Every structure is written in structure tokens, then in C-alpha cells.
């Protein structure tokens, strides 16, 4: 359906690189956890821009921070520092194990910085032969060539020529395989403390504890990719805080800016010291506009009652999905933690997650997939209970239409 100036879905095919295949609808307005398209049709947003819109759309705290900073200063480059970046970095160190922060623009860039830092730390301390990076199958760490190679889905990294070397992928939660691989040559282990894109898979307590212990034994750094799990998503400010395991380096992005592009790498003073002046950098990283918005997000999300609310809303989702499943038994289990949830499809529904996503869209609710067999939910962390109920009703209608 064309609108003024013919900004419609057909224009996408005309002017955009074809690496995406977006839905037909074009949202034009959002408020809280509701979104409206060009035809003014309303949707309940259970997707949250893939775990990004942690305060929903146009949250007053974010709008105020953006408009206030927009009148002051937008960009300086890292030839100088700025007040919002320093305030945000201070807050992130207060809320985590970290003592030092590097700002980037995305999760991939935060992970790129983490991997480069780990390699530099190993070279400086142990020499160039300590370079092995262990990661996990179905893991996802971004789309730069280094991060997509460390990610455990070869379909994303194949076909671009020679890959960065000395990267090994193991099955997630397979402790025997991990024990067999890790050695004094291992420089770093990179993992999500709850796999997101790979199907919403939680680590077993034994596995995540043993990974930490073995990293210590072999002088390897443990990098947690908290791009999707961070900033309150699991009900802890960072997911590692609910596992009893502390990483050496942590990456954060997505909901850090609540929709404004920003990423960060967090680490200790000792490890950070290996990024001396000129070793790494970013033109936009830590710009005042992004940091001012992110600071407003962190101020809201880090409140204890908001984090507690995430766990309460998780239960509402689980109860609602179980009710739907009692009528239309298509889910074998509900996986995940907090508001990073995956409804796993039964065998006869395998491969149909995208069908559910499309049907849900038609019924007025936005959901995601995590592979072909998992429907993923990553809504706003402050989504109203009434929106959860309404969205689940619409999801039930969508599923009914497919059965």
C-alpha cells in the first residue's frame, strides 16, 4: 500500500541491498509496547527490536535525555572525552565486576574489541602461540568477519574467503568436549551466558562453573557476550550475576541504548592496560548523544523494582504460553530466563517458526524466531501486564489460524 511519496514495501526492493527480507508492514509510530503501521493498524510488540527496545517505544526518560543532549553537543571524537560517556562508564562499573569501559556502536564492535583485547593480552603476557579462541556451536557474536567466524553458525561465515584462524567450536553444555579441548594454548573462551540466536539455550550450572575453573587453570580469559542477555533482560542487570560466574571481559549493546545505537566492552584494569593509546579505537564510540540516552536507560533498568518486575512478567508469559499450549499443543517446552524466552516447537511443527511469526503479524502481535523451531519473545522489560495479556490473545488467534 503506497503512502505519500510512495514510501512502501516495494521501494525496499528497489533501493535496499537484498540481505534482508522484511515483512510487508512498515511501522511508523510506537508508544510503550504498541506499534502502528502506515494503515494505522496496531500491533503489540513482543519482539522489542530483537531485545533492544527494553523500555518500549518513546519512553519519557529516553525522549527527555535525547532532546536535552540534542541541544548541547552531539559528537566530539575520542580526541576529547565528554560528560555523558564518563557518567555512563562510571555507572556500568558500579553495576558490574568491571573497572574499565570501552564504548563502541554495536554488539559486533564490542565483541570485536573483546576478541582483539584477549589476543593482545595473550601476546603481551605469554607470546604469539597462545592464540586459540574457543567458542560454541550455534553461538552468535556479530557480523564483522572476526565475530562471525567466532560465532558458531557457519552459514553466516562461509563464502567470504579465508577466515581468521585458530578458532574452535564446541557443543554448548558439553563439558567433556570442553575439557578435551582447552589447553595452555587457549587465549580466550567466548560464550553467551544464555544462547539467544542459537535457540534460547541456558547453560547448566556445572558447565558454566567448569568453564570458569578451567579458564583459570589454563590462564585463558573468559569473555561473556551479554549483547542480548544484558541490561536487565534476564532479571539480573547482567546475566552473569545470576550464574555465580564472573567473566574477565563482557560485551553489552542492544538494550544498553534502548534503541539508540551503542555498545560497550567491560573489563578489569589489568586486562584493559593492554589496549595502550592507538591500539584500538572508534570514531563514534562513546559519543555524547548515544551515552546520554544509554545513561537514561541504565538509570531506569537498574532499579531493583524494575529487575524484580522482569521476573514477574516472565511468569505471566510462561503461564499464558502454557494456556495456549493446553488448547493447541504445538510447544514442547518454554526455555530461557526473564524476558528472553523461547517457545520450542514440537516435532510435527518443526521448521514452522517463521509461519507463526507471519501469522502473528497478521493477528497484530510482533514476535521473533530463534532458528526454524523456536518462537522467541524479547519484549520491553516494562511492558504493561495488559499488553502481555492482549498480545497472548492475538498470538493464540494466530496459532488457531494455522491449526
UniProtKB/TrEMBL annotation:
<feature type="binding site">
    <location>
        <begin position="107"/>
        <end position="108"/>
    </location>
    <ligand>
        <name>pyridoxal 5'-phosphate</name>
    </ligand>
</feature>
<dbReference type="GO" id="GO:0030170">
    <property type="term" value="F:pyridoxal phosphate binding"/>
</dbReference>
<comment type="subunit">
    <text>Homodimer.</text>
</comment>
<keyword id="KW-0663">Pyridoxal phosphate</keyword>
<feature type="binding site">
    <location>
        <position position="283"/>
    </location>
    <ligand>
        <name>pyridoxal 5'-phosphate</name>
    </ligand>
</feature>
<comment type="pathway">
    <text>Amino-acid biosynthesis; L-arginine biosynthesis; N(2)-acetyl-L-ornithine from L-glutamate: step 4/4.</text>
</comment>
<feature type="binding site">
    <location>
        <position position="140"/>
    </location>
    <ligand>
        <name>pyridoxal 5'-phosphate</name>
    </ligand>
</feature>
<feature type="binding site">
    <location>
        <position position="282"/>
    </location>
    <ligand>
        <name>N(2)-acetyl-L-ornithine</name>
    </ligand>
</feature>
<dbReference type="InterPro" id="IPR015421">
    <property type="entry name" value="PyrdxlP-dep_Trfase_major"/>
</dbReference>
<dbReference type="InterPro" id="IPR005814">
    <property type="entry name" value="Aminotrans_3"/>
</dbReference>
<dbReference type="GO" id="GO:0006526">
    <property type="term" value="P:L-arginine biosynthetic process"/>
</dbReference>
<dbReference type="GO" id="GO:0003992">
    <property type="term" value="F:N2-acetyl-L-ornithine:2-oxoglutarate 5-aminotransferase activity"/>
</dbReference>
<comment type="similarity">
    <text>Belongs to the class-III pyridoxal-phosphate-dependent aminotransferase family. ArgD subfamily.</text>
</comment>
<dbReference type="GO" id="GO:0005737">
    <property type="term" value="C:cytoplasm"/>
</dbReference>
<dbReference type="InterPro" id="IPR017652">
    <property type="entry name" value="Ac/SucOrn_transaminase_bac"/>
</dbReference>
<dbReference type="InterPro" id="IPR015422">
    <property type="entry name" value="PyrdxlP-dep_Trfase_small"/>
</dbReference>
<dbReference type="InterPro" id="IPR015424">
    <property type="entry name" value="PyrdxlP-dep_Trfase"/>
</dbReference>
<feature type="modified residue" description="N6-(pyridoxal phosphate)lysine">
    <location>
        <position position="254"/>
    </location>
</feature>
<keyword id="KW-0055">Arginine biosynthesis</keyword>
<feature type="binding site">
    <location>
        <begin position="225"/>
        <end position="228"/>
    </location>
    <ligand>
        <name>pyridoxal 5'-phosphate</name>
    </ligand>
</feature>
<keyword id="KW-0963">Cytoplasm</keyword>
<keyword id="KW-0028">Amino-acid biosynthesis</keyword>
<protein>
    <recommendedName>
        <fullName>Acetylornithine aminotransferase</fullName>
        <ecNumber>2.6.1.11</ecNumber>
    </recommendedName>
</protein>
<dbReference type="Pfam" id="PF00202">
    <property type="entry name" value="Aminotran_3"/>
</dbReference>
<dbReference type="InterPro" id="IPR049704">
    <property type="entry name" value="Aminotrans_3_PPA_site"/>
</dbReference>
<dbReference type="GO" id="GO:0042802">
    <property type="term" value="F:identical protein binding"/>
</dbReference>
<keyword id="KW-0808">Transferase</keyword>
<dbReference type="InterPro" id="IPR004636">
    <property type="entry name" value="AcOrn/SuccOrn_fam"/>
</dbReference>
<dbReference type="InterPro" id="IPR050103">
    <property type="entry name" value="Class-III_PLP-dep_AT"/>
</dbReference>
<keyword id="KW-0032">Aminotransferase</keyword>
<feature type="binding site">
    <location>
        <position position="143"/>
    </location>
    <ligand>
        <name>N(2)-acetyl-L-ornithine</name>
    </ligand>
</feature>
